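During data preparation, a discrete fold description was generated, as reproduced here:
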Amino acid sequence: MKLAQMEVTQFLDLLSTDAPAPGGGSVSALAGAQGTALSLMVVNLTFGREKYAEFFPICEDVLKKGEALLKAFIEAIDNDTLAFNEVTAAYKMPKDTDEQKKERSKAIAAATLKATEVPFESMKLSEEALIITKKLVGNSNPNVSSDLGVAALSLKSALLGSWLNVKINLPSIKDADKKALFEKEGRAMVERSSAIADEIYEAVLATF
């Protein structure tokens, strides 16, 4: 069964065991999905209500983009665990001969790269979700503004959690150019997107 199809209690029970996956990467993707879903909830509690008619164009744009992001986050919940399992399988490959060692090394490098790309993609999703969430601040039903604050916190958690999963893999990346790209773009995303999340949270907090 896919992780995303489990009941909440099933997922949490599995998460609490000594199984190394699912772990922080899948949890980060789940946090992103929750944050995006909260933003969509705010949209749906705004869109279609005449007293908020001036916000409809923004809500329509956020709804379209948010639904795609939510789908991508849900897929990432499983993708992160699948990528980790590929790394584990690569390390278990035989290494008795030079040819086996060569194939094993090649498989480990490919699996590690994939295991880095998956959380890196989750970072991109987090940034995109924070950008559309920010559009809703002051442009949505004020009765659910606190949910936008929680959405921002969830998405920031997804961002930073995914970054940790990128960082832990970087020492094992053999391609120097790709390693440098992950480091440079990852740090830039953390700085940009954390600022957006904090801005949303503070803007919501100031309304109470």
In short: The chain has six helices and no strands. The mean pLDDT is 95. Residues 98-136 form the longest helix (39 residues).
